Amino acid sequence: MLGASRRLGVSQALLSRHLARLEEDVGARLFDRSTRGCTLTDAGSDLLQTAERIEAELLSGTSNLERAGAVSGTLRIGAPDGFGSAFLAPRLGKLRQRHPDLRLQLVPVARTISLSEREADVAIMIGRPAKGRLRVRKLTEYTLGLYAAQSYIDRHGRPRSKDELRAHPLVGYVDDLIYSSDLTYTRDILRDWKSDIEIATAVGQFHAVRAGSGIGVLHDFMAHKDNDLVPLLPEISIRREYWLVWHENLQGSPRLQAFNDWIDAEVRRDRTIFIRQSQPGT
36, 65, 94: which is the final residue of a domain? Predict the structure, then answer.
């Protein structure tokens, strides 16, 4: 209840009163309340399904009322912090030039965005979601590799093997805050990898490594043009996927379709930066 009230921007007491009034109006208990939170009763699940159908019809009707070809309104986009900050944010101006009546909200966060709770209209996710009333499209594969700053190498030297990494300070995620199993890639490099500096975001790790704090696993599309960063052990290349995901209720929305087509074209245009290219002599 507390989490829901925070997302809605109302007090917990007010939300509780609204729910009590709703239960009174429909003549049924909708939630089982306990110290662990609230769970839907059978009546609550039935009402939720009805509400989702109403929402779908409303969104469909709203889309149909928009002028043919017009792209307007607000679109909230969720994305992993690395992709959202390093790739998507610098390019959003191009989409606005194409559709000046479109208002864009970008939410680049180091956690999974919930489309079912309307935290965003569309999201870029790491790996394909396994469940939910969602539509998905594979956006691109991408690679990550080991990097260090040139200043770090000048001071400490360059590791020549995976085993030599143990002698260097390592930068990685905060283990108990990793929100996706796809982010546990350090164990693919060293089974006993232990980060000396733990940072909960990809952008934070990027800046720590770039500043010479240690060796870390960075996205190749973030590091490829940075002259301060040196790729290490090029035989180690970790591959993952980005997926474009949206709730099925928004299917047919002109602003959603405009964004999906645009981001797909942007990624395809710059597809070579997402996969580490072989270096001469490696």
Answer: 65
Q: Tell me the whole-structure pTM to 2 decimals.
A: 0.74
Domain that holds residue 27: 2-65
Residue 279 lies in a domain: no
Q: What does DSSP say about strands 37-40 and 31-34: parallel, antiparallel, or unpaired?
A: antiparallel
Residues 222 and 150 in one domain: yes
Nearest CA-CA partner of 77 in 41, 32, 109: 109
Q: Does a structural domain hold residue 14? A: yes
Residue 112 near residue 131 (C-beta atoms within 8 A): no
Cβ–Cβ under 8 Å, residues 182 and 158: no
User: For the segment 68-92, what is each residue's pLDDT rounded down to a tens digit?
Assistant: 457 889 999 999 999 999 999 999 9
Helix, strand, coil share (%) of the chain residues, nearest 5: 45, 25, 35
Do 77 and 59 sit in the same domain of this protein? Answer: no
- Name the average pLDDT for the chain: 88
Confidence of residue 281 (pLDDT cuts 50, 70, 90): very low
Q: Is residue 93 assigned to a domain?
A: yes
Among 204, 207, 182, 186, residue whose Cα is nearest residue 195: 186
**Residue 277, domain member (yes or no):** no
Residue 139: partners with Cβ closer than 8 Å, 6 or more residues away: 124, 241, 242, 243, 244, 263, 264, 267
